[in-house]
Please model this.
Amino acid sequence: MDLALAPETLARWQFGITTVYHFLFVPLTISLAALTAGLQTAWVRTEKEKYLRATKFWGKLFLINIAMGVVTGIVQEFQFGMNWSDYSRFVGDIFGAPLAFEALIAFFFESTFIGLWIFGWDKLPKRIHLACMWMVSIGTVLSAYFILAANSWMQHPVGYRINEERGRAELTDFWHVLTQNTALTQFFHTMTAAFLVGGAFMVGISAFHLARKKHVPVMRTSLRVGLVTLIIAGLGTAISGDLLGKVMFEQQPMKMAAAEALWDGEAPAPFSVFAYGDVDKGHNNVAIEIPGLLSFLAHSDFSSFVPGINDVNAAEQAKFGPGDYRPNIPVAYWGFRWMIGFGMASLAVGVLGLWLTRKKFMLAPGLRTGEDEVPNLVLFRRTALSPRLGKWYWIVALWTMLFPLIANSWGWIFTEMGRQPWVVYGVLRTRDAVSPGVSQGEVLTSMLVFTALYAILAVIEVKLLVKYVKAGPPELTEDDLNPPTKIGGDPDPDRPMAFSY
Model:
């Protein structure tokens, strides 16, 4: 049988396609929930209309995104029984525990309070309604934590024992699974990367409207919130990435050696800027390197020894038996660089944007923005810089929406493919985790069906987002500003529930 069409390979392709697609929605859901809650908090505290309009605008986009995320996420769980039944049988006792917590606690928070938030605009007191959105945000964070704890166990299994009689792993210390350093650092890195996505999303859409000189008060505020989020999240992503990298150098030296195309261990070890090599012969034909930097990134010591691919492969052969324990080197190497490159490019756009908008905005004297006449309002502070820079920045800011999504996708591809050939590192190989009774044709059929379905959903998602992004923030009604109340100032409990969007 052609290896390219083996059920294991097809099952990996299917899981990879559905996972990457699903994760396009996850970071945006996490970040938009918190950013929307923050904008609503500003409205409750100041009662400024621009914050209420911003809350409704970004909240609508959040709802579209979370709905798509839930739909695509359900498919992930189906695959454990469809294509990975041996994996589910072997690790179900451990992997199922954090997933159960995610469903019982986190998803309960999200589903319950998002309903109250959607329908409670004119039914609940402002602060109670605001609390509902914060509970949704907390739910998204908890959901991410439990899922990342499960994934971290696959990267670094702890708190378990192998039941030789039953041929499966059994949980012995759930708290250790939840609090190991792999889970904590991976959670920190994933959260900061999620807010990088949300910040870029807010900056890009705000830039789109400001370039057209539409909805200036709302989008000006949104742009600044997005830029600050982009910078804080970008710095947090760099710091958390360094911490996670140090953990991975200790726990999965093969993954990090592959990320640097470091074939033989060195002291000090150089950081690879660019490399091109022969994987079969195990060496680089071309290498541009920064001396000693990899040693510092690995152990905070410019002179420390870092094992290479060949060293780790030999060590794992001695420990686990004959075989090739190298992942796909080009994917690991370039995936690592695309993750860092697109992530740091997003941070650079945020820094440039915050500097350019460090003073009041300006359009033109007496220009009408679609809401009120705004005299002497400037989009960019007048400096010695070329006036064209403002125009080009809007274009770059718009495209920046894609940068963190690309970085997140390649980050997960690197994380999962860099672990190969293990599905649970050092415990269970990927080839031993697939469903033994599933044929090549069955996996291929389900993969094609899911891919086609996701393509259709992608079109629907993009059309919905484009439609409501172009529409811009809604105009406020009297009910928005002054919800109907009974005597005493409390929302009228007898008023019928209404969907706010």
